[in-house]
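To whoever is on call:

I kicked off a structure prediction for a single chain this morning and the downstream step that reads the tokens threw a length-mismatch warning. I double-checked the sequence; it's 186 residues and nothing unusual in it as far as I can see. Pasting both halves so you can look.
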Amino acid sequence: MNDDKARDRTRELPMVELQQEEYKSLQAQIATASQQLSIAQAIAVKEKSRSEELSNLVNRMQADFDNYRKRMNESNKRLKEDGICAVLEKLIPALDVLKQAIQSIPDEKVADGVKMIYRQIVDVLSAFGVEEIPALGEQFDPNLHNAVMQVKTTDPSKANMVVEVFNKGYRMGERILRHSVVKVAN
């Protein structure tokens, strides 16, 4: 019986040694896997940080582009308005010439033709939002009127009032295309 036990022990010994080797091998594999997992986690953290940086960069670039687009749209709008105003400023003196021509043409049919041209130019100006600056009977405003003459008045209520308009003034919105040229009571 003792021999049987000894034989069983000798058989168990290689089994135990085999299991210990397998256990050590598994521990080594676990250690390697744990190491690889730590490396992978570090790479993941680094890549996540890089991804956030790139995302922030994209967001900043998008905001910069939106701001650029808004500035360009505003700039284009101003340039367009400046161009329109430049053309209209050149067109306004033609109204003065046509008005003088209408008054000095003796032939009624020719005068009617010039009046049609005058009305067409006024319609073009109106289409662009150009309106006449009120002057006659208004309080003098140096932002709207250009006083070229002064006349004495005895009525204190008419002091600093526009009493005569030599050339009409025009504005487009808040922009003055031409100041009214006026005579002011003093």
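Update from on-call: the warning came from a stale cache, not from the record. Cleared it. Sanity check on the structure: The two ends are 144 Å apart (CA to CA).
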